[in-house]
DNA sequence: CTAGGGTTAG
Protein backbone atom coordinates (compact mmCIF):
# COMPACT_ATOMS: atom_id res chain seq x y z
CA UNK A 1 0.00 0.00 0.00
CA UNK A 2 2.29 2.66 1.17
CA UNK A 3 5.37 3.17 -0.87
CA UNK A 4 7.62 5.24 1.25
CA UNK A 5 11.07 4.25 2.15
CA UNK A 6 11.54 3.57 5.81
CA UNK A 7 15.12 3.04 6.74
CA UNK A 8 16.10 1.17 9.83
CA UNK A 9 16.54 3.19 12.98
CA UNK A 10 20.13 2.25 13.54
CA UNK A 11 21.16 3.37 10.11
CA UNK A 12 22.57 6.64 11.26
CA UNK A 13 25.39 8.85 10.57
CA UNK A 14 27.82 11.53 9.97
CA UNK A 15 26.38 14.67 11.30
CA UNK A 16 23.03 14.38 9.61
CA UNK A 17 20.13 14.16 11.99
CA UNK A 18 19.02 10.54 12.32
CA UNK A 19 15.44 11.70 11.98
CA UNK A 20 16.05 12.98 8.53
CA UNK A 21 17.26 9.66 7.29
CA UNK A 22 14.35 7.80 8.66
CA UNK A 23 11.47 9.18 6.70
CA UNK A 24 10.94 9.93 3.05
CA UNK A 25 8.05 12.26 2.30
CA UNK A 26 8.41 12.78 -1.43
CA UNK A 27 6.26 9.77 -2.22
CA UNK A 28 3.26 10.97 -0.30
CA UNK A 29 0.67 11.70 -2.94
CA UNK A 30 -2.62 11.39 -1.19
CA UNK A 31 -4.54 11.44 2.05
CA UNK A 32 -3.97 7.77 2.78
CA UNK A 33 -0.22 7.99 2.33
CA UNK A 34 -0.12 11.01 4.60
CA UNK A 35 -2.02 9.39 7.41
CA UNK A 36 -0.14 6.10 7.26
CA UNK A 37 3.14 8.00 7.34
CA UNK A 38 1.93 10.03 10.30
CA UNK A 39 0.88 6.88 12.10
CA UNK A 40 4.27 5.37 11.48
CA UNK A 41 5.94 8.46 12.85
CA UNK A 42 4.02 8.68 16.09
CA UNK A 43 4.65 5.03 16.79
CA UNK A 44 8.38 5.69 16.68
CA UNK A 45 10.17 5.98 19.99
CA UNK A 46 11.38 8.47 20.85
CA UNK A 47 9.03 10.66 18.85
CA UNK A 48 10.65 12.39 15.89
CA UNK A 49 11.36 16.06 16.41
CA UNK A 50 9.02 18.82 15.34
CA UNK A 51 11.32 19.47 12.38
CA UNK A 52 10.52 16.08 10.94
CA UNK A 53 6.81 16.62 11.47
CA UNK A 54 7.22 19.97 9.74
CA UNK A 55 8.62 18.22 6.69
CA UNK A 56 5.59 15.97 6.66
CA UNK A 57 3.22 18.93 7.05
CA UNK A 58 5.01 20.78 4.31
CA UNK A 59 4.62 17.83 1.93
CA UNK A 60 0.92 17.61 2.77
CA UNK A 61 0.49 21.30 2.02
CA UNK A 62 2.31 20.80 -1.26
CA UNK A 63 -0.34 18.31 -2.33
CA UNK A 64 -2.96 20.79 -1.14
CA UNK A 65 -4.48 18.59 1.56
CA UNK A 66 -4.93 21.45 3.97
CA UNK A 67 -7.48 19.79 6.19
CA UNK A 68 -5.22 16.78 6.57
CA UNK A 69 -2.36 19.04 7.62
CA UNK A 70 -4.62 20.79 10.09
CA UNK A 71 -5.89 17.60 11.63
CA UNK A 72 -2.38 16.24 11.99
CA UNK A 73 -1.28 19.51 13.54
CA UNK A 74 -4.16 19.29 15.97
CA UNK A 75 -3.23 15.77 16.90
CA UNK A 76 0.40 16.78 17.38
CA UNK A 77 -0.57 19.49 19.84
CA UNK A 78 -2.69 16.98 21.70
CA UNK A 79 0.26 14.62 21.88
CA UNK A 80 2.20 17.38 23.55
CA UNK A 81 4.77 17.78 20.80
CA UNK A 82 6.12 21.27 21.18
CA UNK A 83 5.18 23.43 18.26
CA UNK A 84 7.71 25.81 16.77
CA UNK A 85 7.64 28.82 14.47
CA UNK A 86 7.89 26.76 11.32
CA UNK A 87 4.94 24.56 12.26
CA UNK A 88 2.93 27.63 13.16
CA UNK A 89 3.70 29.27 9.84
CA UNK A 90 2.72 26.16 7.93
CA UNK A 91 -0.57 26.02 9.81
CA UNK A 92 -1.38 29.67 9.30
CA UNK A 93 -0.68 29.20 5.64
CA UNK A 94 -3.13 26.30 5.61
CA UNK A 95 -5.84 28.52 7.00
CA UNK A 96 -5.11 31.17 4.44
CA UNK A 97 -4.98 28.76 1.52
CA UNK A 98 -7.77 26.39 2.26
CA UNK A 99 -10.62 28.72 1.48
CA UNK A 100 -9.79 28.12 -2.14
CA UNK A 101 -10.40 24.44 -1.72
CA UNK A 102 -13.80 22.85 -1.95
CA UNK A 103 -15.24 22.13 1.41
CA UNK A 104 -18.37 20.33 2.42
CA UNK A 105 -21.04 22.99 2.54
CA UNK A 106 -22.50 21.31 5.56
CA UNK A 107 -19.51 22.29 7.65
CA UNK A 108 -20.24 25.96 7.15
CA UNK A 109 -23.52 26.29 8.96
CA UNK A 110 -22.12 24.37 11.90
CA UNK A 111 -19.00 26.48 11.93
CA UNK A 112 -20.92 29.72 12.03
CA UNK A 113 -23.08 28.43 14.84
CA UNK A 114 -20.02 27.26 16.71
CA UNK A 115 -18.34 30.58 16.25
CA UNK A 116 -21.35 32.39 17.72
CA UNK A 117 -21.18 30.02 20.64
CA UNK A 118 -17.51 30.73 21.18
CA UNK A 119 -18.14 34.43 21.17
CA UNK A 120 -21.14 34.09 23.45
CA UNK A 121 -19.62 31.79 25.97
CA UNK A 122 -16.05 32.93 25.56
CA UNK A 123 -14.91 29.39 25.04
CA UNK A 124 -11.45 30.32 24.08
CA UNK A 125 -9.84 26.95 24.10
CA UNK A 126 -10.98 25.54 20.81
CA UNK A 127 -8.76 22.85 19.36
CA UNK A 128 -6.59 23.96 16.51
CA UNK A 129 -8.31 21.68 14.07
CA UNK A 130 -11.77 22.99 14.82
CA UNK A 131 -10.31 26.39 14.55
CA UNK A 132 -9.13 25.64 11.03
CA UNK A 133 -12.46 24.19 10.05
CA UNK A 134 -14.20 27.30 11.28
CA UNK A 135 -11.88 29.67 9.45
CA UNK A 136 -12.25 27.59 6.33
CA UNK A 137 -15.99 27.47 6.55
CA UNK A 138 -16.28 31.17 7.13
CA UNK A 139 -14.05 31.98 4.18
CA UNK A 140 -16.03 29.63 2.00
CA UNK A 141 -19.25 31.26 3.13
CA UNK A 142 -17.81 34.62 2.23
CA UNK A 143 -17.67 35.69 5.83
CA UNK A 144 -14.10 36.79 5.65
CA UNK A 145 -14.49 39.38 8.39
CA UNK A 146 -15.15 36.69 10.96
CA UNK A 147 -12.44 34.48 9.53
CA UNK A 148 -9.93 37.27 9.85
CA UNK A 149 -11.01 38.04 13.38
CA UNK A 150 -10.29 34.44 14.24
CA UNK A 151 -6.99 34.39 12.40
CA UNK A 152 -5.89 37.46 14.29
CA UNK A 153 -6.81 35.84 17.58
CA UNK A 154 -4.56 32.91 16.77
CA UNK A 155 -1.92 35.32 15.64
CA UNK A 156 -1.97 37.32 18.86
CA UNK A 157 -1.88 34.12 20.88
CA UNK A 158 1.46 33.14 19.41
CA UNK A 159 3.81 35.08 21.71
CA UNK A 160 1.91 33.89 24.77
CA UNK A 161 2.69 30.34 23.69
CA UNK A 162 6.33 31.19 23.28
CA UNK A 163 6.25 31.21 19.52
CA UNK A 164 7.59 34.25 17.76
CA UNK A 165 6.07 35.85 14.73
CA UNK A 166 8.59 36.34 12.01
CA UNK A 167 8.69 37.69 8.50
CA UNK A 168 7.20 34.47 7.16
CA UNK A 169 4.23 34.66 9.53
CA UNK A 170 3.55 38.23 8.46
CA UNK A 171 4.02 37.43 4.79
CA UNK A 172 1.58 34.52 4.92
CA UNK A 173 -1.04 36.67 6.64
CA UNK A 174 -0.47 39.61 4.33
CA UNK A 175 -0.82 37.25 1.40
CA UNK A 176 -4.12 35.91 2.75
CA UNK A 177 -5.45 39.38 3.52
CA UNK A 178 -4.38 41.01 0.29
CA UNK A 179 -5.90 38.31 -1.92
CA UNK A 180 -9.13 38.99 -0.03
CA UNK A 181 -8.67 42.73 -0.73
CA UNK A 182 -8.58 43.53 2.97
CA UNK A 183 -6.13 46.34 2.38
CA UNK A 184 -6.85 48.21 5.60
CA UNK A 185 -5.77 45.18 7.57
CA UNK A 186 -2.76 44.67 5.35
CA UNK A 187 -1.69 48.19 6.22
CA UNK A 188 -2.15 47.64 9.94
CA UNK A 189 -0.11 44.44 9.84
CA UNK A 190 2.55 46.07 7.69
CA UNK A 191 3.08 48.90 10.17
CA UNK A 192 2.96 46.56 13.12
CA UNK A 193 5.54 44.29 11.55
CA UNK A 194 7.98 47.15 11.13
CA UNK A 195 7.26 48.38 14.64
CA UNK A 196 8.37 44.94 15.85
CA UNK A 197 11.58 45.29 13.86
CA UNK A 198 10.57 42.64 11.39
CA UNK A 199 11.14 43.82 7.84
CA UNK A 200 9.28 42.92 4.67
CA UNK A 201 11.45 41.18 2.10
CA UNK A 202 11.20 40.47 -1.61
CA UNK A 203 8.51 37.85 -1.06
CA UNK A 204 6.40 40.13 1.14
CA UNK A 205 6.55 42.89 -1.46
CA UNK A 206 5.89 40.51 -4.36
CA UNK A 207 2.86 39.08 -2.65
CA UNK A 208 1.32 42.55 -2.37
CA UNK A 209 2.27 43.44 -5.95
CA UNK A 210 0.65 40.25 -7.20
CA UNK A 211 -2.59 40.84 -5.29
CA UNK A 212 -2.84 44.42 -6.56
CA UNK A 213 -2.30 43.18 -10.11
CA UNK A 214 -5.00 40.55 -9.79
CA UNK A 215 -7.36 43.26 -8.59
CA UNK A 216 -6.64 45.25 -11.72
CA UNK A 217 -4.60 47.91 -9.87
CA UNK A 218 -1.45 47.46 -11.88
CA UNK A 219 -0.38 51.11 -11.62
CA UNK A 220 -0.57 50.93 -7.84
CA UNK A 221 1.42 47.69 -8.06
CA UNK A 222 4.08 49.47 -10.06
CA UNK A 223 4.25 52.14 -7.34
CA UNK A 224 4.87 49.39 -4.79
CA UNK A 225 7.65 48.05 -6.99
CA UNK A 226 9.26 51.49 -6.99
CA UNK A 227 9.02 51.73 -3.20
CA UNK A 228 10.57 48.33 -2.95
CA UNK A 229 13.51 49.30 -5.15
CA UNK A 230 13.90 52.56 -3.25
CA UNK A 231 14.26 50.55 -0.07
CA UNK A 232 17.03 48.52 -1.67
CA UNK A 233 15.08 45.32 -2.11
CA UNK A 234 15.92 43.52 -5.32
CA UNK A 235 12.88 42.38 -7.27
CA UNK A 236 13.27 38.92 -8.78
CA UNK A 237 11.71 36.97 -11.63
CA UNK A 238 8.53 36.36 -9.63
CA UNK A 239 8.09 40.04 -8.80
CA UNK A 240 8.40 41.11 -12.43
CA UNK A 241 6.30 38.22 -13.69
CA UNK A 242 3.48 39.24 -11.37
CA UNK A 243 3.68 42.77 -12.72
CA UNK A 244 3.78 41.58 -16.33
CA UNK A 245 0.69 39.52 -15.70
CA UNK A 246 -0.96 42.59 -14.16
CA UNK A 247 -0.37 44.61 -17.33
CA UNK A 248 -1.59 41.73 -19.49
CA UNK A 249 -4.79 41.46 -17.46
CA UNK A 250 -5.45 45.13 -18.28
CA UNK A 251 -4.77 44.50 -21.94
CA UNK A 252 -1.55 46.52 -21.68
CA UNK A 253 0.58 43.83 -23.21
CA UNK A 254 3.09 46.30 -24.67
CA UNK A 255 3.98 47.48 -21.19
CA UNK A 256 4.31 43.85 -20.11
CA UNK A 257 6.64 43.34 -23.06
CA UNK A 258 8.83 46.24 -21.94
CA UNK A 259 9.30 44.62 -18.55
CA UNK A 260 9.98 41.26 -20.19
CA UNK A 261 12.65 42.81 -22.41
CA UNK A 262 14.26 44.68 -19.54
CA UNK A 263 14.57 41.68 -17.24
CA UNK A 264 17.68 40.02 -18.70
CA UNK A 265 19.54 43.34 -18.47
CA UNK A 266 18.83 43.36 -14.75
CA UNK A 267 20.38 39.98 -14.38
CA UNK A 268 17.08 38.18 -14.13
CA UNK A 269 16.74 34.94 -16.04
CA UNK A 270 13.42 34.57 -17.83
CA UNK A 271 11.74 31.24 -17.30
CA UNK A 272 8.89 29.27 -18.85
CA UNK A 273 6.31 31.03 -16.71
CA UNK A 274 7.51 34.49 -17.79
CA UNK A 275 6.99 33.37 -21.38
CA UNK A 276 3.61 31.83 -20.60
CA UNK A 277 2.36 35.09 -19.12
CA UNK A 278 3.35 37.12 -22.15
CA UNK A 279 2.12 34.54 -24.66
CA UNK A 280 -1.21 34.55 -22.89
CA UNK A 281 -1.22 38.35 -22.89
CA UNK A 282 -0.66 38.49 -26.64
CA UNK A 283 -3.38 35.95 -27.34
CA UNK A 284 -5.87 37.85 -25.21
CA UNK A 285 -5.13 40.93 -27.33
CA UNK A 286 -5.45 38.84 -30.50
CA UNK A 287 -1.79 39.44 -31.30
CA UNK A 288 -1.42 35.94 -32.62
CA UNK A 289 1.83 36.45 -34.50
CA UNK A 290 3.58 37.92 -31.48
CA UNK A 291 2.29 35.09 -29.30
CA UNK A 292 3.38 32.39 -31.73
CA UNK A 293 6.74 34.03 -32.27
CA UNK A 294 7.46 33.92 -28.54
CA UNK A 295 6.23 30.35 -28.35
CA UNK A 296 8.57 29.29 -31.16
CA UNK A 297 11.45 31.22 -29.58
CA UNK A 298 11.33 29.27 -26.33
CA UNK A 299 13.43 26.27 -27.39
CA UNK A 300 16.04 28.61 -28.86
CA UNK A 301 16.31 30.26 -25.45
CA UNK A 302 16.82 26.90 -23.83
CA UNK A 303 13.32 26.82 -22.40
CA UNK A 304 10.93 23.99 -22.82
CA UNK A 305 7.25 24.86 -23.15
CA UNK A 306 5.27 23.11 -20.43
CA UNK A 307 1.69 21.91 -20.38
CA UNK A 308 0.43 25.39 -19.44
CA UNK A 309 2.25 26.89 -22.45
CA UNK A 310 0.57 24.40 -24.74
CA UNK A 311 -2.81 24.94 -23.17
CA UNK A 312 -2.47 28.71 -23.60
CA UNK A 313 -1.43 28.35 -27.23
CA UNK A 314 -4.15 25.84 -28.07
CA UNK A 315 -6.84 27.99 -26.58
CA UNK A 316 -5.52 31.10 -28.30
CA UNK A 317 -5.50 29.38 -31.69
CA UNK A 318 -9.02 28.02 -31.31
CA UNK A 319 -10.29 31.46 -30.34
CA UNK A 320 -9.13 32.87 -33.65
CA UNK A 321 -10.50 29.81 -35.44
CA UNK A 322 -7.09 28.45 -36.41
CA UNK A 323 -8.22 24.89 -35.84
CA UNK A 324 -5.76 23.13 -38.06
CA UNK A 325 -2.84 24.93 -36.41
CA UNK A 326 -4.22 23.93 -32.99
CA UNK A 327 -4.66 20.32 -34.02
CA UNK A 328 -1.18 20.25 -35.46
CA UNK A 329 0.33 21.54 -32.20
CA UNK A 330 -1.76 19.09 -30.21
CA UNK A 331 -0.29 16.22 -32.28
CA UNK A 332 3.19 17.70 -32.30
CA UNK A 333 3.29 17.90 -28.57
CA UNK A 334 2.12 14.35 -28.04
CA UNK A 335 4.66 13.09 -30.55
CA UNK A 336 7.31 14.87 -28.47
CA UNK A 337 6.17 12.95 -25.43
CA UNK A 338 4.17 15.69 -23.68
CA UNK A 339 1.05 14.35 -22.09
CA UNK A 340 -2.14 16.41 -22.36
CA UNK A 341 -3.73 17.10 -19.00
CA UNK A 342 -7.31 17.66 -17.91
CA UNK A 343 -7.21 21.31 -19.03
CA UNK A 344 -5.78 20.37 -22.42
CA UNK A 345 -8.71 18.09 -23.10
CA UNK A 346 -11.19 20.72 -21.92
CA UNK A 347 -9.64 23.29 -24.25
CA UNK A 348 -9.55 20.85 -27.18
CA UNK A 349 -13.17 19.77 -26.72
CA UNK A 350 -14.36 23.34 -26.28
CA UNK A 351 -12.30 24.56 -29.23
CA UNK A 352 -13.47 21.81 -31.55
CA UNK A 353 -17.12 22.30 -30.64
CA UNK A 354 -16.86 26.06 -30.87
CA UNK A 355 -15.46 25.78 -34.39
CA UNK A 356 -18.14 23.47 -35.72
CA UNK A 357 -16.01 20.34 -35.43
CA UNK A 358 -18.38 18.45 -33.20
CA UNK A 359 -17.54 15.13 -34.84
CA UNK A 360 -13.89 15.69 -34.04
CA UNK A 361 -14.82 16.40 -30.43
CA UNK A 362 -16.68 13.11 -30.24
CA UNK A 363 -13.74 11.21 -31.65
CA UNK A 364 -11.49 12.90 -29.10
CA UNK A 365 -13.84 11.71 -26.35
CA UNK A 366 -13.52 8.19 -27.78
CA UNK A 367 -9.77 8.53 -27.82
CA UNK A 368 -9.72 9.59 -24.17
CA UNK A 369 -11.92 6.63 -23.36
CA UNK A 370 -9.72 4.21 -25.32
CA UNK A 371 -6.61 5.46 -23.56
CA UNK A 372 -8.26 4.44 -20.33
CA UNK A 373 -8.08 7.98 -18.99
CA UNK A 374 -10.53 9.23 -16.46
CA UNK A 375 -13.71 10.32 -18.25
CA UNK A 376 -14.28 13.54 -16.47
CA UNK A 377 -17.87 14.75 -16.35
CA UNK A 378 -16.57 18.20 -17.30
CA UNK A 379 -15.70 16.90 -20.77
CA UNK A 380 -19.33 16.07 -21.33
CA UNK A 381 -20.53 19.39 -20.00
CA UNK A 382 -18.29 21.11 -22.56
CA UNK A 383 -19.47 18.99 -25.47
CA UNK A 384 -23.10 19.40 -24.40
CA UNK A 385 -22.66 23.14 -24.29
CA UNK A 386 -21.03 23.07 -27.73
CA UNK A 387 -23.87 21.02 -29.15
CA UNK A 388 -26.46 23.43 -27.76
CA UNK A 389 -24.62 26.38 -29.22
CA UNK A 390 -24.44 24.59 -32.57
CA UNK A 391 -28.22 24.14 -32.34
CA UNK A 392 -27.83 20.36 -32.21
CA UNK A 393 -30.35 20.18 -29.42
CA UNK A 394 -31.33 16.55 -29.78
CA UNK A 395 -27.75 15.33 -29.83
CA UNK A 396 -27.02 17.39 -26.71
CA UNK A 397 -29.98 16.02 -24.81
CA UNK A 398 -29.14 12.50 -25.95
CA UNK A 399 -25.62 12.96 -24.61
CA UNK A 400 -27.01 14.08 -21.27
CA UNK A 401 -29.35 11.11 -21.15
CA UNK A 402 -26.44 8.78 -21.94
CA UNK A 403 -24.29 9.87 -19.01
CA UNK A 404 -25.44 7.14 -16.62
CA UNK A 405 -24.64 4.45 -19.20
CA UNK A 406 -21.02 5.63 -19.11
CA UNK A 407 -21.00 5.42 -15.36
CA UNK A 408 -21.07 9.20 -15.09
CA UNK A 409 -23.40 11.09 -12.86
CA UNK A 410 -24.55 14.50 -13.98
CA UNK A 411 -23.14 17.16 -11.70
CA UNK A 412 -24.05 20.75 -11.08
CA UNK A 413 -22.10 21.84 -14.17
CA UNK A 414 -23.95 19.58 -16.60
CA UNK A 415 -27.22 20.67 -15.01
CA UNK A 416 -26.20 24.29 -15.34
CA UNK A 417 -25.48 23.74 -19.04
CA UNK A 418 -28.96 22.30 -19.47
CA UNK A 419 -30.57 25.07 -17.43
CA UNK A 420 -28.61 27.68 -19.35
CA UNK A 421 -29.94 26.34 -22.63
CA UNK A 422 -33.56 26.48 -21.38
CA UNK A 423 -33.01 29.89 -19.90
CA UNK A 424 -31.55 31.30 -23.13
CA UNK A 425 -34.42 29.87 -25.14
CA UNK A 426 -36.91 31.47 -22.75
CA UNK A 427 -38.08 28.07 -21.48
CA UNK A 428 -38.13 29.33 -17.91
CA UNK A 429 -40.59 26.84 -16.53
CA UNK A 430 -38.45 23.99 -17.77
CA UNK A 431 -35.37 25.65 -16.28
CA UNK A 432 -37.07 25.85 -12.91
CA UNK A 433 -38.18 22.23 -13.19
CA UNK A 434 -34.59 21.19 -13.70
CA UNK A 435 -33.60 23.34 -10.73
CA UNK A 436 -36.10 21.38 -8.66
CA UNK A 437 -34.69 18.13 -10.01
CA UNK A 438 -31.16 19.05 -8.94
CA UNK A 439 -32.43 19.88 -5.50
CA UNK A 440 -34.16 16.52 -5.25
CA UNK A 441 -31.03 14.64 -6.18
CA UNK A 442 -28.06 15.28 -3.95
CA UNK A 443 -26.69 17.63 -6.57
CA UNK A 444 -26.98 21.11 -5.18
CA UNK A 445 -27.45 24.15 -7.34
CA UNK A 446 -24.76 26.75 -6.90
CA UNK A 447 -24.43 30.48 -7.51
CA UNK A 448 -24.04 29.94 -11.25
CA UNK A 449 -27.32 28.02 -11.40
CA UNK A 450 -29.22 30.86 -9.75
CA UNK A 451 -27.53 33.50 -11.88
CA UNK A 452 -28.35 31.69 -15.11
CA UNK A 453 -32.03 31.49 -14.18
CA UNK A 454 -32.15 35.06 -12.94
CA UNK A 455 -30.68 36.28 -16.23
CA UNK A 456 -33.28 34.25 -18.13
CA UNK A 457 -36.12 35.83 -16.16
CA UNK A 458 -34.66 39.31 -16.64
CA UNK A 459 -34.30 38.79 -20.38
CA UNK A 460 -37.93 37.73 -20.57
CA UNK A 461 -38.82 41.14 -19.14
CA UNK A 462 -40.62 39.74 -16.10
CA UNK A 463 -39.05 42.13 -13.63
CA UNK A 464 -41.43 41.40 -10.74
CA UNK A 465 -40.79 37.71 -11.15
CA UNK A 466 -37.05 38.43 -11.22
CA UNK A 467 -37.32 40.35 -7.94
CA UNK A 468 -39.01 37.39 -6.30
CA UNK A 469 -36.33 35.08 -7.60
CA UNK A 470 -33.58 37.43 -6.41
CA UNK A 471 -35.05 37.30 -2.92
CA UNK A 472 -35.03 33.51 -2.93
CA UNK A 473 -31.49 33.51 -4.20
CA UNK A 474 -30.20 35.94 -1.60
CA UNK A 475 -32.12 34.03 1.06
CA UNK A 476 -30.06 30.98 0.10
CA UNK A 477 -26.82 32.88 0.25
CA UNK A 478 -26.24 33.43 -3.48
CA UNK A 479 -25.66 36.79 -5.09
CA UNK A 480 -25.79 38.17 -8.60
CA UNK A 481 -22.46 37.80 -10.37
CA UNK A 482 -20.83 40.51 -12.49
CA UNK A 483 -22.50 39.46 -15.72
CA UNK A 484 -25.96 39.49 -14.11
CA UNK A 485 -25.18 42.87 -12.63
CA UNK A 486 -24.15 44.12 -16.05
CA UNK A 487 -27.40 42.86 -17.51
CA UNK A 488 -29.32 44.69 -14.77
CA UNK A 489 -27.52 47.91 -15.61
CA UNK A 490 -28.08 47.60 -19.34
CA UNK A 491 -31.77 46.82 -18.79
CA UNK A 492 -32.00 49.91 -16.62
CA UNK A 493 -30.58 51.98 -19.44
CA UNK A 494 -33.22 50.67 -21.81
CA UNK A 495 -36.02 51.11 -19.28
CA UNK A 496 -35.13 54.43 -17.76
CA UNK A 497 -36.02 54.92 -14.12
CA UNK A 498 -37.75 51.55 -13.86
CA UNK A 499 -38.49 51.24 -10.16
CA UNK A 500 -38.37 47.46 -10.01
CA UNK A 501 -34.95 47.34 -11.62
CA UNK A 502 -33.66 50.14 -9.41
CA UNK A 503 -34.89 48.29 -6.36
CA UNK A 504 -33.14 45.15 -7.49
CA UNK A 505 -29.86 46.96 -7.91
CA UNK A 506 -30.19 48.55 -4.48
CA UNK A 507 -31.07 45.21 -2.95
CA UNK A 508 -28.06 43.62 -4.56
CA UNK A 509 -25.66 46.33 -3.46
CA UNK A 510 -26.83 46.35 0.13
CA UNK A 511 -26.94 42.58 0.47
CA UNK A 512 -23.47 42.00 -0.88
CA UNK A 513 -21.91 44.22 1.76
C1' DC B 1 11.50 22.14 8.08
C1' DT B 2 7.86 27.70 6.99
C1' DA B 3 5.96 32.64 2.80
C1' DG B 4 5.16 34.80 -3.54
C1' DG B 5 4.00 33.58 -10.27
C1' DG B 6 1.28 31.33 -15.53
C1' DT B 7 -3.16 27.92 -18.60
C1' DT B 8 -9.01 26.71 -16.84
C1' DA B 9 -15.02 26.22 -15.83
C1' DG B 10 -21.62 26.17 -16.65
UniProtKB/TrEMBL annotation:
Coiled coil: none annotated. This is Pentatricopeptide repeat-containing protein. The keyword Repeat applies. Gene3D superfamilies: Tetratricopeptide repeat domain (1.25.40.10). Keywords: Repeat. Belongs to the PPR family. P subfamily. InterPro entries: PPR_rpt, TPR-like_helical_dom_sf. PPR repeats lie at residues 166-200, 201-235, 236-270, 271-305, 306-340, 341-375, 376-410, 411-445, 446-480.
Amino acid sequence: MSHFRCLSTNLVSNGTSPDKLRFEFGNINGVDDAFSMYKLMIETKPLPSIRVFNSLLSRIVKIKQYTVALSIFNDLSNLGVSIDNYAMNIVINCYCSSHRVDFGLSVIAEAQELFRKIVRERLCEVGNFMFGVIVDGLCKAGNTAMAIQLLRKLFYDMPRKGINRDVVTYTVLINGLSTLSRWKEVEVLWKEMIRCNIYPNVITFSTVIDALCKEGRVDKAHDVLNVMIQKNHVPDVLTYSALMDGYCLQGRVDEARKIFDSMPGMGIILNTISYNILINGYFKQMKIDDAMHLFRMMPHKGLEPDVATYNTVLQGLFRVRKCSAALQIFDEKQAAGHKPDFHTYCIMLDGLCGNGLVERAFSLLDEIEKKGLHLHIQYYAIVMDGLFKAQKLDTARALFADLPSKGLEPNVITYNTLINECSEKGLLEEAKDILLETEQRSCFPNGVTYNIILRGILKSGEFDEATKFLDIMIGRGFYPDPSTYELLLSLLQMNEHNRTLLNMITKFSSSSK
